[in-house]
Each structure stands twice: as structure tokens, then as C-alpha cells.
Known about the structure:
Shape: flat
CATH topology of the largest domain: MetI-like fold
Radius of gyration: 30 Å
CATH superfamily of the largest domain: MetI-like
Strand content: under 5%
Number of strands: 0
Number of helices: 13
Largest sheet: none
Structural class: mainly alpha
Order of helices and strands: HHHHHHHHHHHHH
Amino acid sequence: MHAPSSTNLAMPAGRSARNEPTPADAHPARTLKRGEGKARDDATQRMQKLLRLASPFLLLAIWELLARLGILDVRFFPPPSTLVGTAEQMLTDGSLAAAVADSMIRLVIGFCLGAVAGCLVGVCVGLSGWFRSLIEPWLIVTYPIPKLAIYPLLVLIVGLGDAPIVLLLAIAVFYIVSLNLTAGIASIRPVIYDVGRDSQASFMQIVLTIALPASLPHLFVALEIASGIAFIVLIAAEFVGAKTGLGSIIWSSWQLFDVGPMYVAILAISILGYLSTVLLRATGRLLMPWRRTHRV
């Protein structure tokens, strides 16, 4: 008798290693269905991205067509081709660039002042019960006041010019940042603060290593909202309180019934607002790599 070979001992009769199914082949229908689902999701994402890029141009094309057919009154809705010529003229003579620069200087200074003050007050209110009892009632009571309503008061206090506009922007941003940051710090579990105190951490160490990092999502949401509010307040204040800037262009165009520069200024505002949102979200992704944020 011959001893059975090692191959016959390792494999049952009628089966070989060549015929052994792999895990991927065990459920071919399921694997195929999963692959089809992923391909379908990728195709949907590509179509959504394409639609996002094409939708502004589609809207402009419809606008152009309706204006040329006479369906839209070109006195109020001039065709985009005409607005392109107006924008080129404003770029050539430098009026658009000067207006953008003046508006953005006011906005950046006011936004930074309001954001810094809002962070300081938000941290103090969020971490100190005494400070919260003292300050939070005033924040809640004065927050609903329309910020434009205090613009005349600011003019009386600091005079005409850029100063009241910058202060108005700072006040508008301050409320949004301080209230949202207070809520973010208050949402942190108390046990986390207890760990910091047990480690003999100072107040500044607790702020820098616990409170601010944990409340960054609230802070950046507040900054995005405050950015949009700042543009609204800026343009409204420039209507009546500035001789330069995008708001001034819109106001003077209305007075002269010249809607071309008005549309160009409105488009510039929308582009600047979009870029500010992109910048804030990119900064948020940089500071919070662990957190997935929505893309613009």
C-alpha cells in the first residue's frame, strides 16, 4: 500500500485549491450591487457638481434671452451683455476697484474688532458664573435692537466718516460671536473642566486647551453668520453715511436711475461674500482637521 499524499490529506476528495472560492467571490451579486451603488453615487456627485457650476451661467442665459425678447423691462433688468460692458468701464476707470477697497477696509476692521471683543466676552461669560450673571442679561436684552437703529447715535458720538460705520459693524459682529461662543463653551461637559482643574491648570490654560478648542465649531458657525450680517450692515450704512464704497455706488445709481453700476456693485458684493465664506470654511478645516465641514 502506498501512503496517501499530503495533497490528498489536506483537500477533501473532489475539491482543489484552485476551486476554493475567495471572500470576494462568495457573494458575487452583493459585490456587484455594491460596486454599482458606488458608481451611481459618484455619477450623482459629478452631476451635482456640474449643475452647481452651470446654474449661474444658465440663469444668465435665460436672463439675456428674456431681455432680448422684450419679456423683461431692460430699464430695470438690462441684459447681462450690457452689464459686462458697464463692468469693463468701471474696471477701466478704477471706480469699481476703489469702491471694493473702501468697503473691504471698513468691513475687515469692523469684523475683526467685533470678533475679538465677542470672543473675549464669550469666553468670560461661558466660564464665569459671576460674569454671566452680570453681562448675559444685557446681551439678551440689547441683541434684538436693529443695529442700524443706533447708527445715528454713533454719528452723534464719533461724527461722520468711516468711524461710525466701523463701530456699527463691530457691534453687529460682537453680538453674534459672543452669544454663539457662550453657548459653545456652556455645552462642554463639566467633567472636562474638572480634569483641567485637577491637573492644576490655570485659567488661561483651561481657555486655550479646553474651552476654545472644544467650542471651535460654534465659533466658526458664528463667524460665517457674522460675515453675512456684516455685509448687510456695511452696505446699508454706506447708503447714507459714506461717499465711497459699494453701497455708495448702489445709492447714487438709484438716484440717477442708472441701474448698470447698481447691478455691478451687487454682483461684486455677492462675490466678496462668497469668497469670505470660502476663506472662513477653509480656515475652519485647517484648525479642525478632525471635523468634516460642508463645502461651498
